Amino acid sequence: MIFSKLSLPICWAALLLGSAGISAQERLITLPDGQVASEGIARIIERGELRVGMHALDQVPFFYRENSVTKGTDVELAKNIAQALGVSIKLVRTADSFDGVVNQTVFGDVDLSISKISRTLARSKRVSFSAPYATFRQAFLVNRLEFAKIEKGRSLRDVLINFDATIGVIAKSSFVTFAQQNFPKATIVEYPTYQDVVDAVIDGEVVAGYRDEFEVKKVLQSDPSLSLILRPVTFDDLVDTIGITVSLDNPALLGFVNLFLEQKYRPLRIERLLELTKAIKR
Fold it and tell me: Which residue did the predictor score with more confidence, 18 or 40?
């Protein structure tokens, strides 16, 4: 690997470091083709590929396999970031939980992770998060019959403020933490997958499944007859912001990703995501 230090006057180096979001500890590297980049980005360019962590289980329309090829909106975002860096992309889809995807970034198995990952304070202790590239309201998918049993003449608002029933969530996901924080009186039941959560709500095993409004609406869109059994409840004051994870050791890459999102990316609305989901044959 051919790297050489870039010698710059201190004042200009400081300007470059500040504008790119590079820490004082990161060296600037001159690559063989004359490009100048931080050490972290230079390694990616020299390697010729951007390694991107992504959940092993499909999450339509964000990432899913079709004829052995992984497609989706998150995949396109990853490809576009790689293209802006001038490299190819390598998807790493071995983690079987969202926390596992985050940890791939922590331990250097990937350069960054794009996997519909919720930004949380707990995760931010071990990775850097980009600015949000999607924001959803949090929501319940409620079993109508079971919910009626706990209403007892109270308003919907009163029931939710003092929610003390069962909530189903995906294990090792951000919604475990969200449930603990937002509904401290509830009994939280963790399931391996979101489909397991949905099945538990349908069967009345839990009163509500907890995720974002897109995933809740997607369930009802996939089978409108479920509206007889289930109802959505969205929370205007609780949001789920989705970001890209980057190693704490690569602040220049974080700066690059944030500038890319600001200049090159346009978030997709829920209505468009639902249209894309409907068009995908599974």
Answer: 40
Q: Report the distance separating Cα 198 and Cα 266, nearest Å.
A: 30
Residue 140's pLDDT is what?
A: 98
First to last CA, the chain: 44
Mean pLDDT to the nearest integer, 121-148: 97
Q: Which residues contact 183 (CB under 8 A, 6 or more apart)?
A: 163, 167
How many whole angstroms separate alpha carbon 229 and alpha carbon 247? 43
- CA neighbours closer than 13 Å in the CB half-sphere of residue 66: 13
Domains of the chain listed by start with CATH number: 1-47 (no CATH), 48-133+243-279 (3.40.190.10), 135-241 (3.40.190.10)
Q: Does residue 219 sit in helix, strand or coil? A: helix
Using CA atoms, how far apart are residues 241 and 59, in angstroms rounded to an integer?
16
pLDDT tens profile 9-18:
333 334 344 4
Asked if the peptide bond before residue 224 counts as cis, ω within 30 degrees of 0, the response is no
